[in-house]
Amino acid sequence: xxxxxxxxxxxxxxxxxxxxxxxxxxxxxxxxxxxxxxxxxxxxxxxxxxxxxxxxxxxxxxxxxxxxxxxxxxxxxxxxxxxxxxxxxxxxxxxxxxxxxxxxxxxxxxxxxxxxxxxxxxxxxxxxxxxxxxxxxxxxxxxxxxxxxxxxxxxxxxx
Length: 159
Known about the structure:
72% of the residues lie in helices and 0% in strands. By secondary structure, the chain is an all-alpha fold. Helix 1 packs antiparallel against helix 2 and helix 1 (25-52) runs antiparallel to helix 4 (119-143).
């Protein structure tokens, strides 16, 4: 197909949905992060259960749950803030990142160490969840489309 035969060239209609920003990437990012980290946490919890018993499995699940809760909250905040102020959502998302780190530490400090908690499995699940969550989050966010300039046809005709 030559350039002149490409859709949208020489007056031919462009296929619908080819361009434009992603409506709200935050819920899609949340879904994919929860799926990826949830599957990994399930495998780790099963391994912990086999190697350390029920306490190990619960510890791994708890480590995942605390991280997923705090990381999920920040994506939900980005989603709801993005509805009214899409350009401000990223800044708010960055602020909530700092808040969730402090909140995560506060939960651990206030809860203390329950007698059933296997610290190695809890730590492994929490760190593994953080790392995998960040990888998935960055990957999915990098695939989202962000409109940087107003592509209004009226704005182009005023020049």
